[in-house]
Amino acid sequence: MSVEFNLSAESVRFLIEKIRMANSIVSDSYEDGHEGDVEFDEENLTDSHHHEGLAEEENDDMTEEELRELLQDMNVDETAELYALLWIGRGDFEADDLEQVMQDAQERAQSTTKTASCEYFLGQPLLADHLEAGLDTLGL
Question: Whole-angstrom Cα distance, residue 129 to residue 86?
């Protein structure tokens, strides 16, 4: 393969682990019938629209926030590589198309804000599986 990755396979696997952790926390909260477990302070509830009675969410887990930070801290080359792994793992491209995929991914990473890239990645329902498949397909 003539394309060399800046992102190590270990870094991508760490990211995959974070994605799976974040997904399991979201799944767990919905499975037990709670959607974010928001508490209300009944003493301070008023009819105003200031939400004064709304307390902080019970879930103090920072996994999704950490995941967002990891994604947004990546440089353009790393973001492009993540796009390429996703697209190959998702089956949009073959491993033989790696040079073209990297060119397309580089263009995408350069023309998209970090926030938009982050939202794109987090909007992929099987992101962890696709990234893992991308690593496997490329033999990384």
Answer: 9
